[in-house]
Amino acid sequence: LSVGFRTVEPLEYYRRFLKENCRPDGRELGEFRATTVNIGKGVGPGSITTADGSALVKLGNTTVICGVKAELAAPAADAANKGYIVPNVELPSLCSMRFRSGPPGEEAQAASQFIADVIENSQIIAKEDLCIASGKLAWVLYCDIICLDYDGNILDASAFALLAALKNVQLPSVTINEETGLSEVNLKQKNPLIIRKHPVATSFAIFDDTLLIVDPTAEEEDLATGTVTIVTDDEGRLCSVHKPGGSPLTGAKLQDCITRAVTRHKEVKKLIDKVIKSIKPK
């Protein structure tokens, strides 16, 4: 099929591929793009070395970096024994022609909300684990997720980068001096975060209301009649279903998505474990 036809009739161009159960980039309908993750020091721009944990994830051309910065703060009055996790997704103009400079647009806000929901629903970290002294001192984890190159499926890449970065975080031990009431930070003694669950997102684009393709590119998202993102945890449990409008899904189709998501969870978990094993000091 000619490039000209793709430009003039992109949807028809796609349909001809989908009829043959494949996509223009050679993938099968249920196939993810090549996925890589790098964790820790030396990831991304130099400034990220100031982070307490970081990760860079690539899904095909979509490239996302996550830096986690930990700060100390007083717990909220109504949650005296809990710390805070504050996620933020940025889609700067440099990552795609579709985004403008300035305050976060709709898609960035929706992605930040999605990540906040994943953190809440999956219990990836128990907020109680971030408390140092009840009512006095707790950790705040600022999780900044920045897209460096946008080619669709920002949610899967962001959730993956967040999980990988959190698994890389080392926090210094902090105690409160009984006499002075001041906190004392021991930078020599660092501990990893307790990651209680490993949520993984799997996104699908819906074509012509019925056909599901996994890990859509930006072009596929633009042509789709809807999208759906399934988040599962280690036990194959459903943490959330994110469906912003678009074509409705039958129960059977949704079940297909969940089955694929459970398989994807295993793939991602294996990838993270392998990378973490390779960076552990021998």
From TrEMBL:
**One Pfam family, short name please?**
RNase_PH_C
Keyword terms? Acetylation, Cytoplasm, Exosome, Nucleus, RNA-binding, rRNA processing
Exoribonuclease phosphorolytic domain boundaries: 46-172, 199-262
One CC-aspect GO term: cytoplasmic exosome (RNase complex)
Which cellular compartments is it found in?
Answer: Cytoplasm; Nucleus, Nucleolus
**The keyword Hydrolase appears for this protein:** no
The answer to keyword RNA-binding applying to this record is yes
GO MF terms here are: mRNA 3'-UTR AU-rich region binding
| One BP annotation, GO | exonucleolytic trimming to generate mature 3'-end of 5.8S rRNA from tricistronic rRNA transcript (SSU-rRNA, 5.8S rRNA, LSU-rRNA)
- Please tell me where this protein is predominantly located: cytoplasm
InterPro entries linked:
ExoRNase_PH_dom1, ExoRNase_PH_dom2, ExoRNase_PH_dom2_sf, Exosome_comp_Rrp42_subfam, PNPase/RNase_PH_dom_sf, Ribosomal_Su5_D2-typ_SF, Rrp43
For this chain, the family text in UniProt reads: Belongs to the RNase PH family.
Q: What is this protein called?
A: Exosome complex component RRP43
Q: Which organism is it from?
A: Sagittarius serpentarius (Secretary bird)
